[in-house]
Design a protein that fits this description.
Shape: elongated
Oligomer: single chain
Low-confidence stretches: none
Order of helices and strands: EHEEHE
Distance between the termini: 28 Å
Strand content: 15-25%
Helix content: 10-25%
Number of strands: 4
Structural class: alpha+beta
Largest sheet: 2 strands, antiparallel
Mean pLDDT: 81
Length: 98
């Protein structure tokens, strides 16, 4: 699993420039817009690498970094689904800025 990369993209200047049918799924256009109030923090000592957080993350921001799981905070929306589904309770949602 590789960390996702931002794809070069020129935002449309007018309505006719919007390439709706040609945008592939999984293309990242920009980083997190800043509305996240909490972020997931993975406790590597509790994590058993079951990858359930990777499976349930709707944004695909959780990835395997070597032998541990990591979160790409540039694209994480802070929904908390990963923390809710983590059976060993290895993910805590902490307020943004801590």
């Amino acid at each position: 699993m590789k960390r996702r990369q931002v794809t070069g993209y020129d935002f449309p200047k007018c309505l006719n420039d919007i390439p709706l049918p040609s945008i592939r799924p999984g293309v990242l256009l920009d980083v997190n817009s800043g509305f996240r109030t909490e972020k997931p923090v993975i406790n590597t000592e509790k994590c058993v690498n079951c990858m359930m957080c990777y499976i349930v993350c709707p944004e695909g921001t959780i990835y395997k970094d070597g032998d541990k799981m990591a979160v790409d905070y540039d694209y994480c929306k802070g929904c908390g689904i990963c923390a809710h589904e983590c059976r060993p309770h290895a993910i805590d949602m902490v307020p943004e800025g801590e």
